[in-house]
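User: I'm new to structure prediction. If I give you an amino acid sequence, what do you actually give back? Let's try with this one:
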Amino acid sequence: MVEYTEDDPKPQLEEECKPHCVKEWQAYKDCVERIKADATGRAHCSGQYFDFWKCVDHCVAPKLFERLK
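Assistant: Good question. You get back a string of structure tokens that encode the predicted 3D arrangement of the chain. For your 69 residues, that looks like this:
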């Protein structure tokens, strides 16, 4: 069994990386505003949401794996 001695750094790294992904976040927020009036329920912004998290993950990955032993 592995014992962990420090907290998970990923949430902190994600918060540090979010400012680098402003363009993707804005695209997501714009999409949310556009679909508010959709009465069909078919419109969604999952593409923009995943684009945002892809950007965050791309920023976090090298910093996170640098800490792993």
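You can read the tokens as a compact description of the fold. Here is one thing that stands out. The chain has three helices and no strands.
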